Structure of Glutamate--tRNA ligase:
Amino acid sequence: MSSAPHPATTTATGSDIRVRFCPSPTGLPHVGLIRTALFNWAYARHNGGKMVFRIEDTDAARDSEESYQQLLEALRWLEIDWDEGVEKGGPHAPYRQSQRHELYRGVLDKLIAAGVVYESYSTAEEIDARNEANGRAKQLGYDNFDRDLTDEQKAAFRAEGREPAWRLRVPDHDLTYVDLIRGEVTFPAGSFPDFVIVRAGGIPLYTFVNPVDDALMGITHVLRGEDLMPSTARQLALYAALIEAGVTDFVPRFGHMPLVLGETGNKKLSKRDPKADLFLQREKGFIHEGLLNYLSLLGWSIAADRDVFTRDELIAAFDIADVNPNPARFDQKKAESINGDHVRMLAPADFAERLVPYLAGAGLIENPPTAGEREMLEASAPLVQERMQLLGDAPGLLGFLFRADVSYDDDAVSGLPANAGEVLVASVGALELVPEQGFTAAAVQDALAPALIEGLGLKPRVAYGPLRVALSGRRVSPPLFESMELLGKSETVRRLDALVQRIG
């Protein structure tokens, strides 16, 4: 028996669209979870609709206040805002499941009155025994035995001291919906039995409270991960019952986003994979603009030949119908490259300010910086902005400018050419002739080029390599002559002399 989508399926568009983000506060926010928030937010903002942020915190053993605060921090850092929900309030408060039990009880009463749920007394052992006796596989589970219990049978069970669970009376026909990402999907009649929505003792289950919250909050579009797609059948059945009971008058539209895979293989990106840790990515030096851009590419694209775009451009272009149903793969190198593009888009002063936590975290400057540290930071930041992908690279690239003693990388010293001492001595001689007050990048280059390139007959890469190591302790550094200008004549010469002494 075939079935069309429920005739009461919402036709909401534009500002009538309402989406939700409803995580459980367990563990750290991870890439897949935040991608779900991002797509809901982008869809709401694109259409001028609203996003509701509620918390599913009924698992007391696993939920934590720390995780809740981390969720808030993650969304605020990425500038994913919401219109109603926790911390903001709204017409459908409270927005925590743990505070909504009276509402769930009221909805259950309406479902009971409408006759779309029934008392169930069967234990797991009794269900297994009946299945065995009737030649049914155990895996088929509940056999709808309690659907038609008489009042006498119910009374007898209660006399034994049993409390009933409440099961939804599942429709005896196919259930069909049109997925916003995957097209028409049909769940055949009989593919799942009547299911428990409230346990014995009155404890509501997730399969009940999640759709009930959506219904009571007027959610028109449920956008979530592909792994939740099998539960849609039960949600469609429950929505039909909620409509019959007068709790709501429409069925939302569903869209199931693709899985996010790890960099290799075909396994879902594990929550324990360091790449999935949003805060670890921030610690490495992602800026929110870059990570937001990359996360939006996990299943969607703005154009076939374009990967880098702004938040406003994302909002203007995003449509959930354009999301690719195929799995998306997390590519760390691509993510970092896109982040680098956004780093280069920052205003110089903004870029310099964002380096402060990373430099301070490495013990190189104070937070906030002293006047001298800020002056050096503002002068040196433009030297590395074009070559930096992650802000976490700042201590390695700029640390030598804030540190009196040079810390030499082993590979930098071991890679010095045999004539490094000669090059350094010649450089000191040339730089001594440059006046202290005129020690600019241009003057330094004008002094060194004749001494090293012409005088010693060296190629620039060979000539200037030892100088980089002397100043920064590394083989790679910001532009050499500009770095010398920032350090000043006496400090530059001191460092060149120091490496001469070190290598003998």
Notes: The chain has a mean pLDDT of 96.
